[in-house]
Amino acid sequence: MSATISERGPVVAAPSGFLWGAATAAHQTEGGNVNTGHWVAEYAPGTAVPEPSGDACDSFHRYGQDIALLAESGLGCYRFSIEWARIEPEPGVISRAALAHYRAMIDACLPAGVQPIVTLHHFTFPRWWQQRGGWQAPDAVDRFTRYVEAAVGILADVAWVITINEPNMLVIQLGAITDTTLGMNAVGVDEQRAQAIAAAHHAAVDVVRASTRARVGWSVANQAFQAVPGWEAQRDAWRYWREDFFLEQARGDDFIGVQAYLRTLIGPTEDSLGYGPQSWPDGTRFTLTGWEYYPAALGDAVRHTHRLTGLPILVTENGIATADDAERIEYTRAALAGLAAAMADGADVRGYLHWSLLDNYEWGSFAPTFGLVAVDRDSFVRTAKPSLFWLGDLARRGVLPV
User: Fold this and answer.
1) Which family does it belong to (predicted)?
2) What is the pTM of this model?
3) Domain spans of the chain, in order of start
Protein backbone atom coordinates (compact mmCIF):
# COMPACT_ATOMS: atom_id res chain seq x y z
CA MET A 1 0.00 0.00 0.00
CA SER A 2 1.51 3.32 -1.06
CA ALA A 3 0.69 6.52 0.82
CA THR A 4 -1.06 9.42 -0.88
CA ILE A 5 -2.28 12.79 0.38
CA SER A 6 -5.63 14.41 -0.39
CA GLU A 7 -7.58 17.35 0.91
CA ARG A 8 -9.32 14.90 3.20
CA GLY A 9 -6.12 13.87 4.95
CA PRO A 10 -3.38 11.28 4.46
CA VAL A 11 -4.53 7.91 3.17
CA VAL A 12 -3.26 4.66 1.73
CA ALA A 13 -4.89 2.56 -0.95
CA ALA A 14 -6.95 -0.30 0.42
CA PRO A 15 -6.33 -3.73 -1.14
CA SER A 16 -8.27 -4.59 -4.27
CA GLY A 17 -11.69 -5.96 -3.35
CA PHE A 18 -11.62 -4.56 0.18
CA LEU A 19 -15.14 -4.64 1.62
CA TRP A 20 -16.77 -1.56 3.15
CA GLY A 21 -20.06 -1.64 4.97
CA ALA A 22 -22.06 -1.43 8.15
CA ALA A 23 -23.73 -3.91 10.48
CA THR A 24 -26.94 -4.42 12.42
CA ALA A 25 -28.57 -7.24 14.40
CA ALA A 26 -32.15 -8.46 14.20
CA HIS A 27 -33.29 -7.95 17.79
CA GLN A 28 -31.71 -4.51 17.95
CA THR A 29 -33.42 -3.17 14.83
CA GLU A 30 -36.40 -5.28 13.73
CA GLY A 31 -38.84 -4.66 16.56
CA GLY A 32 -41.55 -6.96 17.86
CA ASN A 33 -39.18 -9.88 18.39
CA VAL A 34 -41.65 -11.38 20.85
CA ASN A 35 -40.58 -15.03 20.77
CA THR A 36 -37.10 -14.52 22.21
CA GLY A 37 -35.85 -14.98 25.74
CA HIS A 38 -34.65 -11.37 25.60
CA TRP A 39 -38.20 -10.13 24.98
CA VAL A 40 -39.41 -12.21 27.94
CA ALA A 41 -36.74 -10.67 30.17
CA GLU A 42 -37.46 -7.14 28.94
CA TYR A 43 -41.14 -7.37 29.88
CA ALA A 44 -40.96 -9.60 32.95
CA PRO A 45 -42.50 -8.17 36.15
CA GLY A 46 -39.81 -6.38 38.13
CA THR A 47 -37.31 -6.67 35.27
CA ALA A 48 -33.87 -5.16 35.72
CA VAL A 49 -33.78 -4.23 32.02
CA PRO A 50 -33.96 -0.41 31.92
CA GLU A 51 -35.85 -0.18 28.64
CA PRO A 52 -37.55 -2.79 26.40
CA SER A 53 -36.80 -3.18 22.71
CA GLY A 54 -40.42 -2.68 21.61
CA ASP A 55 -40.60 -1.62 17.98
CA ALA A 56 -36.84 -0.97 17.90
CA CYS A 57 -36.17 0.66 14.50
CA ASP A 58 -39.03 -1.17 12.75
CA SER A 59 -36.47 -2.57 10.34
CA PHE A 60 -38.55 -5.71 9.94
CA HIS A 61 -40.72 -3.56 7.68
CA ARG A 62 -38.28 -0.79 6.71
CA TYR A 63 -35.18 -2.79 5.78
CA GLY A 64 -35.45 -1.48 2.22
CA GLN A 65 -34.85 2.06 3.49
CA ASP A 66 -31.82 0.90 5.45
CA ILE A 67 -30.29 -0.87 2.46
CA ALA A 68 -30.95 2.14 0.20
CA LEU A 69 -29.25 4.54 2.63
CA LEU A 70 -26.22 2.30 2.83
CA ALA A 71 -25.98 1.89 -0.93
CA GLU A 72 -26.41 5.61 -1.62
CA SER A 73 -23.55 6.45 0.72
CA GLY A 74 -21.07 4.35 -1.24
CA LEU A 75 -20.85 1.46 1.21
CA GLY A 76 -21.11 -1.91 -0.50
CA CYS A 77 -21.82 -4.44 2.25
CA TYR A 78 -24.62 -4.93 4.76
CA ARG A 79 -24.14 -7.31 7.65
CA PHE A 80 -27.44 -8.32 9.25
CA SER A 81 -28.64 -11.28 11.29
CA ILE A 82 -31.53 -13.64 10.73
CA GLU A 83 -33.64 -14.43 13.77
CA TRP A 84 -33.79 -18.03 14.98
CA ALA A 85 -36.86 -17.28 17.11
CA ARG A 86 -38.81 -16.19 14.03
CA ILE A 87 -37.59 -19.04 11.84
CA GLU A 88 -38.24 -21.77 14.45
CA PRO A 89 -40.94 -20.42 16.78
CA GLU A 90 -41.49 -23.86 18.31
CA PRO A 91 -39.11 -26.84 18.40
CA GLY A 92 -39.07 -28.40 14.94
CA VAL A 93 -41.59 -25.90 13.52
CA ILE A 94 -40.00 -23.96 10.65
CA SER A 95 -41.67 -20.78 9.44
CA ARG A 96 -41.53 -20.58 5.66
CA ALA A 97 -42.77 -17.00 5.92
CA ALA A 98 -39.83 -15.99 8.12
CA LEU A 99 -37.36 -17.61 5.75
CA ALA A 100 -39.03 -15.80 2.84
CA HIS A 101 -38.71 -12.51 4.72
CA TYR A 102 -34.96 -12.90 5.16
CA ARG A 103 -34.60 -14.05 1.59
CA ALA A 104 -36.37 -10.83 0.58
CA MET A 105 -33.73 -8.86 2.50
CA ILE A 106 -31.00 -10.62 0.52
CA ASP A 107 -32.90 -9.94 -2.70
CA ALA A 108 -33.16 -6.25 -1.78
CA CYS A 109 -29.40 -6.02 -1.29
CA LEU A 110 -28.22 -7.59 -4.52
CA PRO A 111 -29.79 -5.24 -7.13
CA ALA A 112 -28.71 -2.26 -5.01
CA GLY A 113 -25.10 -3.34 -5.41
CA VAL A 114 -24.89 -4.28 -1.73
CA GLN A 115 -23.30 -7.54 -0.70
CA PRO A 116 -25.25 -9.24 2.11
CA ILE A 117 -23.19 -10.66 4.96
CA VAL A 118 -25.49 -12.88 6.99
CA THR A 119 -25.12 -13.76 10.67
CA LEU A 120 -27.00 -16.91 11.69
CA HIS A 121 -27.09 -16.12 15.39
CA HIS A 122 -26.68 -12.74 17.10
CA PHE A 123 -27.29 -13.19 20.85
CA THR A 124 -31.03 -13.96 20.84
CA PHE A 125 -32.58 -17.42 21.29
CA PRO A 126 -36.13 -18.70 20.97
CA ARG A 127 -37.84 -18.67 24.36
CA TRP A 128 -38.36 -22.43 24.08
CA TRP A 129 -34.61 -22.93 23.75
CA GLN A 130 -33.95 -21.31 27.08
CA GLN A 131 -36.82 -23.16 28.71
CA ARG A 132 -35.20 -26.43 27.60
CA GLY A 133 -31.86 -25.52 29.20
CA GLY A 134 -30.07 -23.52 26.52
CA TRP A 135 -26.49 -24.59 25.92
CA GLN A 136 -26.69 -26.86 28.97
CA ALA A 137 -29.33 -29.06 27.27
CA PRO A 138 -27.93 -32.40 26.04
CA ASP A 139 -29.27 -31.81 22.52
CA ALA A 140 -28.19 -28.16 22.30
CA VAL A 141 -25.70 -28.67 19.47
CA ASP A 142 -28.13 -30.83 17.50
CA ARG A 143 -30.90 -28.23 17.92
CA PHE A 144 -28.67 -25.42 16.68
CA THR A 145 -27.46 -27.53 13.76
CA ARG A 146 -31.03 -28.30 12.68
CA TYR A 147 -31.83 -24.58 12.75
CA VAL A 148 -28.81 -23.89 10.52
CA GLU A 149 -29.90 -26.67 8.16
CA ALA A 150 -33.27 -24.94 7.80
CA ALA A 151 -31.70 -21.50 7.29
CA VAL A 152 -29.04 -22.27 4.68
CA GLY A 153 -31.65 -22.79 1.97
CA ILE A 154 -31.95 -19.02 1.56
CA LEU A 155 -28.18 -18.39 1.41
CA ALA A 156 -27.28 -19.83 -2.00
CA ASP A 157 -25.81 -16.58 -3.37
CA VAL A 158 -24.52 -15.09 -0.09
CA ALA A 159 -20.73 -14.82 -0.15
CA TRP A 160 -20.02 -14.39 3.59
CA VAL A 161 -21.75 -16.19 6.48
CA ILE A 162 -21.07 -15.69 10.19
CA THR A 163 -22.27 -18.59 12.33
CA ILE A 164 -22.35 -17.05 15.82
CA ASN A 165 -21.78 -13.47 16.89
CA GLU A 166 -19.38 -12.98 19.81
CA PRO A 167 -19.51 -16.51 21.22
CA ASN A 168 -17.16 -15.43 23.98
CA MET A 169 -19.78 -13.01 25.28
CA LEU A 170 -22.21 -15.92 25.61
CA VAL A 171 -20.02 -17.65 28.20
CA ILE A 172 -18.88 -14.77 30.37
CA GLN A 173 -20.69 -14.55 33.68
CA LEU A 174 -20.89 -10.90 34.68
CA GLY A 175 -20.20 -9.90 38.25
CA ALA A 176 -17.90 -11.39 40.86
CA ILE A 177 -17.36 -15.09 40.21
CA THR A 178 -15.24 -17.46 42.26
CA ASP A 179 -13.87 -20.85 41.38
CA THR A 180 -16.45 -22.45 43.70
CA THR A 181 -19.38 -21.21 41.58
CA LEU A 182 -21.19 -24.08 39.89
CA GLY A 183 -20.04 -24.44 36.29
CA MET A 184 -17.46 -21.68 36.46
CA ASN A 185 -13.71 -21.99 36.28
CA ALA A 186 -11.23 -19.93 38.27
CA VAL A 187 -11.56 -16.94 35.97
CA GLY A 188 -15.35 -16.91 35.90
CA VAL A 189 -16.15 -18.65 32.61
CA ASP A 190 -18.47 -21.60 31.97
CA GLU A 191 -16.18 -24.01 30.10
CA GLN A 192 -18.99 -26.48 29.36
CA ARG A 193 -20.96 -23.77 27.60
CA ALA A 194 -17.84 -22.66 25.70
CA GLN A 195 -17.23 -26.20 24.45
CA ALA A 196 -20.88 -26.61 23.42
CA ILE A 197 -20.86 -23.33 21.50
CA ALA A 198 -17.62 -24.31 19.78
CA ALA A 199 -19.13 -27.66 18.77
CA ALA A 200 -22.22 -25.89 17.44
CA HIS A 201 -20.02 -23.56 15.42
CA HIS A 202 -18.05 -26.41 13.86
CA ALA A 203 -21.29 -28.22 12.98
CA ALA A 204 -22.70 -25.04 11.44
CA VAL A 205 -19.55 -24.52 9.38
CA ASP A 206 -19.97 -28.02 7.94
CA VAL A 207 -23.62 -27.35 7.06
CA VAL A 208 -22.85 -24.02 5.38
CA ARG A 209 -19.97 -25.50 3.40
CA ALA A 210 -22.08 -28.45 2.27
CA SER A 211 -24.94 -26.24 1.09
CA THR A 212 -23.37 -23.01 -0.18
CA ARG A 213 -20.21 -21.56 -1.66
CA ALA A 214 -19.98 -18.91 1.04
CA ARG A 215 -16.93 -18.14 3.12
CA VAL A 216 -17.87 -19.09 6.66
CA GLY A 217 -16.50 -18.19 10.09
CA TRP A 218 -17.55 -16.55 13.33
CA SER A 219 -16.95 -13.18 14.95
CA VAL A 220 -15.14 -12.76 18.28
CA ALA A 221 -15.37 -9.81 20.66
CA ASN A 222 -11.76 -8.70 21.00
CA GLN A 223 -10.98 -6.56 24.04
CA ALA A 224 -7.33 -5.64 23.49
CA PHE A 225 -6.24 -7.08 26.83
CA GLN A 226 -3.26 -5.23 28.26
CA ALA A 227 -1.30 -6.04 31.42
CA VAL A 228 -0.05 -3.71 34.09
CA PRO A 229 3.71 -4.52 34.22
CA GLY A 230 4.20 -7.74 36.15
CA TRP A 231 0.65 -8.98 35.44
CA GLU A 232 1.31 -10.62 32.07
CA ALA A 233 0.61 -14.16 33.30
CA GLN A 234 -2.68 -13.10 34.88
CA ARG A 235 -3.62 -11.32 31.66
CA ASP A 236 -2.98 -14.43 29.59
CA ALA A 237 -5.02 -16.62 31.95
CA TRP A 238 -7.85 -14.10 32.05
CA ARG A 239 -7.84 -13.69 28.27
CA TYR A 240 -7.79 -17.36 27.31
CA TRP A 241 -11.44 -18.28 28.02
CA ARG A 242 -12.62 -14.78 27.15
CA GLU A 243 -10.99 -14.57 23.73
CA ASP A 244 -8.15 -16.89 22.74
CA PHE A 245 -10.10 -20.17 23.05
CA PHE A 246 -12.60 -18.82 20.54
CA LEU A 247 -9.90 -17.61 18.17
CA GLU A 248 -8.34 -21.08 18.30
CA GLN A 249 -11.67 -22.65 17.34
CA ALA A 250 -11.63 -20.63 14.11
CA ARG A 251 -8.40 -22.04 12.75
CA GLY A 252 -10.13 -24.29 10.22
CA ASP A 253 -12.53 -21.58 9.04
CA ASP A 254 -12.42 -19.41 5.94
CA PHE A 255 -12.04 -16.19 7.93
CA ILE A 256 -12.32 -14.77 11.43
CA GLY A 257 -14.47 -11.79 12.36
CA VAL A 258 -12.85 -9.18 14.60
CA GLN A 259 -15.06 -6.91 16.71
CA ALA A 260 -13.22 -4.25 18.69
CA TYR A 261 -14.29 -1.19 20.65
CA LEU A 262 -12.11 -0.88 23.74
CA ARG A 263 -9.21 -2.26 25.75
CA THR A 264 -9.25 -4.15 29.03
CA LEU A 265 -6.45 -3.53 31.52
CA ILE A 266 -5.40 -6.37 33.81
CA GLY A 267 -3.81 -5.34 37.09
CA PRO A 268 -4.28 -5.07 40.86
CA THR A 269 -7.64 -3.91 42.19
CA GLU A 270 -9.70 -4.21 45.34
CA ASP A 271 -12.43 -6.32 43.72
CA SER A 272 -12.95 -9.99 44.54
CA LEU A 273 -11.31 -11.24 41.36
CA GLY A 274 -8.28 -8.96 41.44
CA TYR A 275 -8.41 -8.10 37.76
CA GLY A 276 -8.94 -4.80 35.96
CA PRO A 277 -7.98 -1.40 37.38
CA GLN A 278 -10.95 0.35 38.91
CA SER A 279 -9.80 3.89 38.23
CA TRP A 280 -8.55 5.70 35.15
CA PRO A 281 -6.09 8.58 34.88
CA ASP A 282 -7.47 12.09 35.07
CA GLY A 283 -8.65 13.28 31.69
CA THR A 284 -9.62 9.84 30.36
CA ARG A 285 -12.37 10.11 27.75
CA PHE A 286 -15.39 7.81 27.92
CA THR A 287 -18.15 6.89 25.51
CA LEU A 288 -21.89 6.74 26.17
CA THR A 289 -21.48 3.08 27.19
CA GLY A 290 -18.92 4.05 29.85
CA TRP A 291 -16.08 2.53 27.84
CA GLU A 292 -12.71 4.20 27.52
CA TYR A 293 -12.27 6.15 24.29
CA TYR A 294 -9.57 3.96 22.74
CA PRO A 295 -9.63 3.74 18.93
CA ALA A 296 -6.29 1.88 18.93
CA ALA A 297 -8.24 -1.18 20.11
CA LEU A 298 -8.99 -2.16 16.51
CA GLY A 299 -5.38 -2.33 15.39
CA ASP A 300 -4.42 -4.13 18.61
CA ALA A 301 -7.20 -6.70 18.12
CA VAL A 302 -6.32 -7.35 14.49
CA ARG A 303 -2.63 -7.87 15.32
CA HIS A 304 -3.46 -10.32 18.12
CA THR A 305 -5.96 -12.24 16.00
CA HIS A 306 -3.49 -12.42 13.11
CA ARG A 307 -0.75 -13.75 15.41
CA LEU A 308 -3.02 -16.39 16.91
CA THR A 309 -4.90 -17.61 13.81
CA GLY A 310 -3.14 -16.49 10.63
CA LEU A 311 -6.59 -16.37 9.03
CA PRO A 312 -8.05 -13.76 6.70
CA ILE A 313 -9.78 -11.18 8.90
CA LEU A 314 -13.04 -9.35 8.36
CA VAL A 315 -13.68 -6.48 10.77
CA THR A 316 -17.31 -7.27 11.51
CA GLU A 317 -17.87 -4.53 14.11
CA ASN A 318 -16.12 -1.36 15.23
CA GLY A 319 -17.59 1.92 16.35
CA ILE A 320 -18.34 4.30 19.20
CA ALA A 321 -21.39 5.24 21.26
CA THR A 322 -21.50 9.02 21.09
CA ALA A 323 -24.03 11.79 20.56
CA ASP A 324 -21.33 13.82 18.77
CA ASP A 325 -20.99 12.68 15.17
CA ALA A 326 -17.73 14.58 14.76
CA GLU A 327 -16.35 12.42 17.56
CA ARG A 328 -17.58 9.33 15.69
CA ILE A 329 -15.58 10.39 12.63
CA GLU A 330 -12.54 11.18 14.80
CA TYR A 331 -12.71 7.77 16.49
CA THR A 332 -13.28 5.86 13.26
CA ARG A 333 -10.49 7.69 11.46
CA ALA A 334 -8.04 6.73 14.22
CA ALA A 335 -9.32 3.15 14.33
CA LEU A 336 -8.90 2.77 10.57
CA ALA A 337 -5.39 4.23 10.75
CA GLY A 338 -4.52 1.52 13.28
CA LEU A 339 -6.08 -1.04 10.98
CA ALA A 340 -4.00 0.18 8.05
CA ALA A 341 -0.83 -0.10 10.16
CA ALA A 342 -1.69 -3.68 11.15
CA MET A 343 -2.30 -4.54 7.50
CA ALA A 344 1.03 -3.01 6.52
CA ASP A 345 2.63 -5.32 9.07
CA GLY A 346 1.09 -8.39 7.44
CA ALA A 347 -2.45 -8.89 8.72
CA ASP A 348 -4.69 -10.12 5.89
CA VAL A 349 -7.77 -7.93 6.37
CA ARG A 350 -10.55 -8.29 3.81
CA GLY A 351 -12.92 -5.55 4.91
CA TYR A 352 -14.37 -3.18 7.49
CA LEU A 353 -17.99 -3.12 8.72
CA HIS A 354 -18.97 -0.25 10.99
CA TRP A 355 -21.21 -0.74 14.01
CA SER A 356 -23.79 0.33 13.50
CA LEU A 357 -25.72 1.43 10.46
CA LEU A 358 -28.54 2.68 12.71
CA ASP A 359 -28.96 4.14 16.15
CA ASN A 360 -30.65 1.08 17.61
CA TYR A 361 -31.50 -0.88 20.74
CA GLU A 362 -28.31 -1.56 22.68
CA TRP A 363 -29.39 -4.47 24.90
CA GLY A 364 -31.34 -2.55 27.51
CA SER A 365 -31.40 1.02 26.26
CA PHE A 366 -31.69 3.21 23.19
CA ALA A 367 -29.44 5.83 24.80
CA PRO A 368 -26.02 4.65 23.49
CA THR A 369 -26.07 5.85 19.88
CA PHE A 370 -23.61 3.98 17.63
CA GLY A 371 -25.31 4.69 14.31
CA LEU A 372 -24.26 6.29 11.06
CA VAL A 373 -27.99 6.98 10.69
CA ALA A 374 -30.32 8.45 13.31
CA VAL A 375 -33.77 6.92 13.76
CA ASP A 376 -36.71 8.89 15.17
CA ARG A 377 -38.24 6.81 17.95
CA ASP A 378 -41.82 7.80 17.07
CA SER A 379 -41.91 8.09 13.29
CA PHE A 380 -38.95 5.80 12.46
CA VAL A 381 -37.73 8.40 9.98
CA ARG A 382 -34.09 7.77 9.12
CA THR A 383 -31.66 10.70 8.97
CA ALA A 384 -28.17 10.07 7.64
CA LYS A 385 -25.35 11.60 9.68
CA PRO A 386 -22.20 13.15 8.18
CA SER A 387 -20.26 10.07 9.35
CA LEU A 388 -22.19 7.89 6.88
CA PHE A 389 -21.04 10.00 3.93
CA TRP A 390 -17.52 10.33 5.34
CA LEU A 391 -17.17 6.55 5.52
CA GLY A 392 -18.85 6.12 2.15
CA ASP A 393 -16.34 8.54 0.64
CA LEU A 394 -13.47 6.35 1.84
CA ALA A 395 -15.22 3.35 0.29
CA ARG A 396 -15.75 5.08 -3.06
CA ARG A 397 -12.10 6.12 -3.19
CA GLY A 398 -10.85 2.77 -1.91
CA VAL A 399 -8.55 4.27 0.71
CA LEU A 400 -7.77 3.93 4.42
CA PRO A 401 -6.71 6.84 6.67
CA VAL A 402 -3.21 6.73 8.10
Assistant:
1) Belongs to the glycosyl hydrolase 1 family.
2) 0.94
3) 3-401
